[in-house]
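Hi,

Apologies if this is the wrong queue. I'm a grad student, and the batch job for Aldouronate transport system permease protein from Paenibacillus favisporus produced an output file that my downstream script rejects. I'm not sure whether the problem is my script or the file. Here is the sequence I used:
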Amino acid sequence: MGKTVLVQPTGTGPVQSTGKKPRGQRIKEFFIDFRRQWELQSMILPGIIFMFIFCYIPIYGLSIAFKNYTVIDTLDSAPWVGLDNFKIIISDKYFWDSVVNTLGISFLKLAVGFVIPIILAIMIYEVSIGRFKKFVQTISYLPHFLSWIVLGGMLITWFSTSGLLNEVLLGLGLISQPQNILLDPSKYWWIATLSDIWKEAGWGTILYLAVMSKIDPTYYEAAKIDGASRLRQIWNITLPNMKMIISLNLILTVSGLLGSNLDQTLVLMNSQNREKAEVINSYVYRMGMTQGDFSYATAVGLGVSIISVILLVTANKVTSKLNDNQSVL
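Support response: The file is valid. Your script probably expects a header line. Output copied below for reference.
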């Protein structure tokens, strides 16, 4: 069928209709819909106000990254220094050490921690016993609701020379004498990765389980009739239906590669493992809150934010290519 053609009143020739309403009409319809649904629309006002106060107004404070700001200055009175703070960042050895640690821990969490919630969600979904499924879900969710202060205290106790882990390893004959594992810098990356997985893997299954619950069961019935095994059904039915939510989580994970968990680091870091435990967030916290160099800390945070946005856009482009040019954002 051909496209609809409209004839211009002036007689200058036919013009193709785009089907797009005039801007004024769209604005008018928006306000009509808003007035009709004002009760529902008003429910988002607290969220908008919160974001404006705590997310948009503080953006003005980023200007101190280009100033020499001290506690006795105001945002306007602090002297401009241009890009001096960023030049210091480039030559700061301790900053680059924190970058290496951040990327090392984040890539381990991405390689191991990203896959485990998917596998756990599929295993929970495949369980046919309702009570056992609920029990597993509850146990896996529980660590998420405990703060890192609580979990960190547990880990410090377990990893001490007289802790649970050393008792188990001594009993199995794997070590000859107890040692405090948290004092060993070479093991910290794995401690941070595995403890984060322990805390968040169960919580990360929620979205996957929600998506799997919407899959049409007739797909599985047809696959059974065709003789497909459970693994084949998971590979050809379950995972393809989870493709979009997996892509979304991957984008968010990649964009947060430079944002390691500050709470976890502050709890587990000590003077012995600092060389492997110091991440960008803890470095910014130490420079800003402990040493009072607010301009330098802001400059680091601004640079990290810019790189995170670049990673976000890049990850979105890559995943859209893998999803037949369909973006999930």
